[in-house]
Specification:
The chain has one domain. Strand 3 and strand 4 form a beta hairpin. The relative contact order is 0.24. It is built from six helices and seven strands, in the order E-H-E-E-E-H-H-H-E-E-E-H-H. Helix content is 28%, strand content 13%. The protein is an alpha/beta fold. The strands form three sheets. Strands 1-2-5 form a three-stranded parallel β-sheet, with no helix packed on it. A two-stranded antiparallel sheet has the order 3-4. Strands 6-7 form a two-stranded antiparallel ribbon. It starts with a strand and ends with a helix.
Length: 202
């Protein structure tokens, strides 16, 4: 897959991440040799809340934040983040059309303790593809490649300073009675609100 696009591995990625992957026919490489970048979707997911957006952040073991290859970053369980994240998802999406449909499949991710961030994010990504009824072709990088063509390199296109944005049509969201439509939230927002239509929406 030398000519394939390279993507970072995110925690419950935003919808635009999946749209970009779809543009490459669901065939792509996942970067596992990059150093963990702070304040990116690698450890953060953004969902809808009554007050607008809410960030769910994965804590990592001290020392993993700089100069540690993504494949070696370990999750920290000093704080009870699994319980907090699951309660947040339940609280924010319990009233959505499809939350109960996906609840039993998603809950185990917040019960099992994963050692590595890469494994946790990867299993979640595979679960999301399964819910969309997509069978992707995924390989991992064998080393860090800095010379990838810009149009094939998505490793830095999903941060605050360089967001890979696509035009997104609006869909019904929870709290739409008090918040304007919020684009590019975590894909679970799309999944809980659109259910089986998620793949078509991308």
């Amino acid at each position: 897959m030398q000519s394939s696009a390279i993507f970072p591995l995110f925690y419950l990625p935003p919808s635009s991440y999946f749209t970009a992957i779809k543009e490459h026919n669901f065939e792509f490489l996942i970067e596992k040799h990059e150093h963990l970048l702070k304040q990116t979707y690698r450890t953060r997911a953004t969902i809808a809340s009554p007050d607008g957006t809410l960030d769910l952040t994965l804590p990592v073991v001290k020392g993993s934040k700089t100069h540690t290859p993504m494949k070696d970053v370990r999750l920290s369980y000093d704080a009870k983040w699994q319980r907090l994240h699951w309660l947040s998802l339940q609280t924010c999406y319990r009233s959505s059309a499809y939350f109960e449909f996906y609840e039993d499949g998603l809950a185990p991710f917040y019960e099992k303790k994963y050692t590595f961030l890469l494994d946790f994010n990867m299993e979640l990504l595979n679960w999301l593809f399964k819910q969309m009824k997509v069978i992707p072709t995924i390989e991992f990088t064998e080393e860090y490649q800095s010379d990838r063509l810009p149009e094939l390199d998505f490793r830095n296109k999903f941060n605050k300073n360089n967001i890979h944005e696509v035009e997104m049509k609006e869909y019904f969201q929870v709290f739409s009675d008090r918040n304007a439509f919020i684009p590019n939230l975590s894909c679970v927002d799309l999944l809980f609100n659109q259910g089986p239509q998620t793949k078509l929406y991308l």
